[in-house]
Amino acid sequence: MSEGAALTGPDGAARCPWALSTPDYVTYHDEEWGRPVHGDDALFERVSLEAFQSGLSWITILRRRAGFRAAFADFKIEAVAGFTDEDRARLLADPGIIRNGAKIDATLANARVLADWAPGELDELIWSHAPDPAGRPAPKTLADVPAITPESTALSKALKKRGLRFVGPTTAYALMQACGLVDDHLETCVARGRR
């Protein structure tokens, strides 16, 4: 078996190797990761969580997602755009989230920028960078999964040009994977092609 190839889980199904490290990951992998996400608020949540994940493992964010949703008004763009200095202080003291000042400030700033966009504009911008799936062979091992692509670099530049922060090419690619713009489930993974 190749290193980084899909592994068989306790239920007998093959999955991406990272998915088998914790039960939380199995559920996230099987039910969410790589499935299309639409809607400005839903995508704002994903952009924000990917930014908070930068430099950390995704499981750290996944296990705090309920805390993030409670702290950031379910990531409703209009609500977060209205957060005050008192809200910022509350966030910095909230043990249910990652208390990183730069990432909190970026999330608040991004909400203020996005509040001025037309409904559907974030969704349209992000999805306009989805590559043609026909040009992307299914990865056989984790080594075949890139960290950055030309499309993620272009998405990062487009978001930054419009004023968003903490959206580098690697973060943009993680967003593309999580939100179903690409299907990076391995070729023999049980979740491959579930859209």
Structure description:
- The chain is mainly alpha-helical and 195 residues long.
- 47% of the residues lie in helices and 2% in strands.
- It is built from ten helices and two strands; from the N terminus they run ββαααααααααα.
- The chain has helices at residues 23-31, 40-53, 58-62, 65-71, 77-81, 85-92, 101-114, 121-127, 150-161, 169-178; strands spanning 7-8, 14-15.
- The chain has a two-stranded antiparallel sheet.
- β1 (7-8) and β2 (14-15) form a beta hairpin.
Total number of helices: 10
Give the termini separation.
27 Å
Order of helices and strands: EEHHHHHHHHHH
> Approximately how much helix is present in the residues?
40-55%
Strand order of the largest sheet: 1-2
Tally of DSSP β-strands: 2
Question: Which descriptor suits the 3D outline?
Answer: globular
Main sheet: strands, sense, barrel: 2 strands, antiparallel
Structural class call reads mainly alpha
